[in-house]
């Protein structure tokens, strides 16, 4: 993708305006078309929002994580599909920055920061539990020229438009991460249509058949520490999803506040009904709690604190459940209109449910978070 | 430095896992309590506590197996940064 002149990253006020004018009003249309138009992706580039956390020497603005979270919250308020694209692109960009050698960084980071190249994160496989995250169905075999990659990945957000694929594969010595250009011979991208939730995020299944890679395609350490590449990237993804989920709660509040102000039942404006007030109060409280948890996780990350990891799990656990609850309540408050494509809330519901499945499902998070509770009690 | 590093690393681990006992030389991975999440926390802890960025070639299991090996890693990284 070609970026126009870039003047970013935009401040939060500008991001908010962008979302209000150019994203939120069109999000249902994006969903129906099952794609985000190129013009919108170019605008994200113009605003410098693809990877603003990268340092300036690589075309970013060294944006701190708390601010990045607010940006992803705003975008998530408008359209979770676009936020999903930002999420995976951020995961790839941050990984190349954290683990890439000089050559890899120079080759990719500028283009990723400008959105000239889009990244996709390729971990999940069609025939295995995504929660297990072993990448056993994709193999990378070393030969004298480099690596040969074979296997299939599914549910790849942005896979239809990505230029750079960050692919997890099994080697003889465990799992490794590879940077693979999407136009390499042997890479076949098949769009996944009619996905219910983040429908415009241009998901794909990607097949690798005898894809030849140079030795320099390997990203980061091999063996045991290769797991930290995955954990690190998923941590950022989880943070972005959590912030996006707070955005969904906000969108639900906005939609309900407007709708209940103009709609009456039994001669009483919906806004004056106690059960509506109760649901609105729940949404407001969940939004504020979610944002505080996200801010805490972001601030810990900015400080390089190891507590970031658990704080991010907790933020995502809360925010994704809150988004599902808020979007479900929003559909209920809208009655039949809650199912209509003329209102945003059905889409919010579909999108919210995705946040409970990706980057650690609610059930997998419960294993991790509860284990922490038992550990704390043991102290 | 190395003794201070050992103490700090040990404190970090035992604060998280107070029930586990081990010597500085013992293989903590063999004790079974280190999952991938805690491994990442260990990497982050060392980088933050000792103000260093562990390079890829030093990020292998052999450097994290015991408190002593982690303290050696810290000593190498901090002396490389100074030298
Ligand atoms: C819209 C969308 C976008 C996605 N984008 C990407 C992407 O860009 N890149 C990518 O690699 N993947 C992507 N994924 C895949 C996603 O990461 C996986 O769906 C997720 O990891 C869960 O894996 P799974 O779907 O195989 O479910 P499974 O792992 O098969 O889980 C099925 C059910 O079992 C539960 N479960 C699993 N393990 C346990 C356990 N140990 N204890 C209790 N319950 C458990 C889960 O909570 C879930 O309810 C995307 C998925 C969706 C829906």
Automatic annotation (TrEMBL), chain A:
<comment type="similarity">
    <text>Belongs to the acyl-CoA dehydrogenase family.</text>
</comment>
<dbReference type="InterPro" id="IPR009100">
    <property type="entry name" value="AcylCoA_DH/oxidase_NM_dom_sf"/>
</dbReference>
<dbReference type="InterPro" id="IPR006091">
    <property type="entry name" value="Acyl-CoA_Oxase/DH_mid-dom"/>
</dbReference>
<dbReference type="InterPro" id="IPR013786">
    <property type="entry name" value="AcylCoA_DH/ox_N"/>
</dbReference>
<feature type="domain" description="Acyl-CoA oxidase/dehydrogenase middle">
    <location>
        <begin position="120"/>
        <end position="211"/>
    </location>
</feature>
<keyword id="KW-0560">Oxidoreductase</keyword>
<dbReference type="Pfam" id="PF02770">
    <property type="entry name" value="Acyl-CoA_dh_M"/>
</dbReference>
<dbReference type="InterPro" id="IPR046373">
    <property type="entry name" value="Acyl-CoA_Oxase/DH_mid-dom_sf"/>
</dbReference>
<dbReference type="InterPro" id="IPR036250">
    <property type="entry name" value="AcylCo_DH-like_C"/>
</dbReference>
<dbReference type="Pfam" id="PF02771">
    <property type="entry name" value="Acyl-CoA_dh_N"/>
</dbReference>
<feature type="domain" description="Acyl-CoA dehydrogenase/oxidase N-terminal">
    <location>
        <begin position="14"/>
        <end position="116"/>
    </location>
</feature>
<dbReference type="InterPro" id="IPR009075">
    <property type="entry name" value="AcylCo_DH/oxidase_C"/>
</dbReference>
<dbReference type="Pfam" id="PF00441">
    <property type="entry name" value="Acyl-CoA_dh_1"/>
</dbReference>
<dbReference type="InterPro" id="IPR037069">
    <property type="entry name" value="AcylCoA_DH/ox_N_sf"/>
</dbReference>
<keyword id="KW-0285">Flavoprotein</keyword>
<feature type="domain" description="Acyl-CoA dehydrogenase/oxidase C-terminal">
    <location>
        <begin position="228"/>
        <end position="372"/>
    </location>
</feature>
<protein>
    <submittedName>
        <fullName>Butyryl-CoA dehydrogenase</fullName>
    </submittedName>
</protein>
<keyword id="KW-0274">FAD</keyword>
TrEMBL record, chain B:
<dbReference type="InterPro" id="IPR009081">
    <property type="entry name" value="PP-bd_ACP"/>
</dbReference>
<protein>
    <recommendedName>
        <fullName>Carrier domain-containing protein</fullName>
    </recommendedName>
</protein>
<feature type="domain" description="Carrier">
    <location>
        <begin position="1"/>
        <end position="78"/>
    </location>
</feature>
<dbReference type="Pfam" id="PF00550">
    <property type="entry name" value="PP-binding"/>
</dbReference>
<dbReference type="InterPro" id="IPR036736">
    <property type="entry name" value="ACP-like_sf"/>
</dbReference>
């Amino acid at each position: 993708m070609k970026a126009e002149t870039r003047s970013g990253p935009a401040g939060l006020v500008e991001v908010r305006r962008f979302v209000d004018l150019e994203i939120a009003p069109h999000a249902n249309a994006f969903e129906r078309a099952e794609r985000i138009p190129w013009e919108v992706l170019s605008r994200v580039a113009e605003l410098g929002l693809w990877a603003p956390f990268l340092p300036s020497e690589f075309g970013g603005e060294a944006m701190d994580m708390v601010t990045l979270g607010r940006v992803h919250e705003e975008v998530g308020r408008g359209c979770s599909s676009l936020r999903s694209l930002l999420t995976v692109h951020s995961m790839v960009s941050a990984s190349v920055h954290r683990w890439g050698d000089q050559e890899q960084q120079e080759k990719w980071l500028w283009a990723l920061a400008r959105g000239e190249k889009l990244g996709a994160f390729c971990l999940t496989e069609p025939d295995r539990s995504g929660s297990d995250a072993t990448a056993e169905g994709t193999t990378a075999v070393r030969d004298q020229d480099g690596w040969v990659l074979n296997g299939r990945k599914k549910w790849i957000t942005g896979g239809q438009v990505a230029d750079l694929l960050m692919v997890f594969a099994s080697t003889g010595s465990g799992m490794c991460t590879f940077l693979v250009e999407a136009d390499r011979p042997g890479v076949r991208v098949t769009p996944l249509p009619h996905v219910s939730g983040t429908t415009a995020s241009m998901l794909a299944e990607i097949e690798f058949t005898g894809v030849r890679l140079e030795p320099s395609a390997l990203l980061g350490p091999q063996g045991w520490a290769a797991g930290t590449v995955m954990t690190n990237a998923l941590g950022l993804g989880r943070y972005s999803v959590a912030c996006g989920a707070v955005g969904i709660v906000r969108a639900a509040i906005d939609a309900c506040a407007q709708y209940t102000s103009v709609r009456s039942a039994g001669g009483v404006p919906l806004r004056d009904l106690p059960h509506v007030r109760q649901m609105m109060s729940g949404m407001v409280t969940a939004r504020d709690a979610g944002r505080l948890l996200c801010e805490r996780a972001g601030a810990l990350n900015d400080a390089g604190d190891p507590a970031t990891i658990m704080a991010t799990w907790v933020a995502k656990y809360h925010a994704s459940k809150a988004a599902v609850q808020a979007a479900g309540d929003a559909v209920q408050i809208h009655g039949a209109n809650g199912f209509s494509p003329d209102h945003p809330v059905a889409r919010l519901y579909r999108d919210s449910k995705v946040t409970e499945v990706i980057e650690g499902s609610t059930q997998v998070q419960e294993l991790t978070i509860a284990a922490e509770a038992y550990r704390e009690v043991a102290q | 430095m190395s003794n201070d590093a050992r103490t700090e690393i040990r404190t970090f681990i035992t604060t998280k896992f107070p029930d586990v006992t081990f010597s500085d030389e013992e293989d903590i991975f063999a004790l079974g309590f280190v999952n991938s999440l805690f491994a990442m926390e260990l990497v982050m802890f060392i980088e933050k506590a000792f103000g260093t960025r562990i390079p890829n070639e030093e990020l292998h299991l052999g450097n994290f197996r015991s408190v002593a090996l982690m303290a050696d890693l810290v000593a190498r990284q901090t002396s490389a940064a100074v030298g």
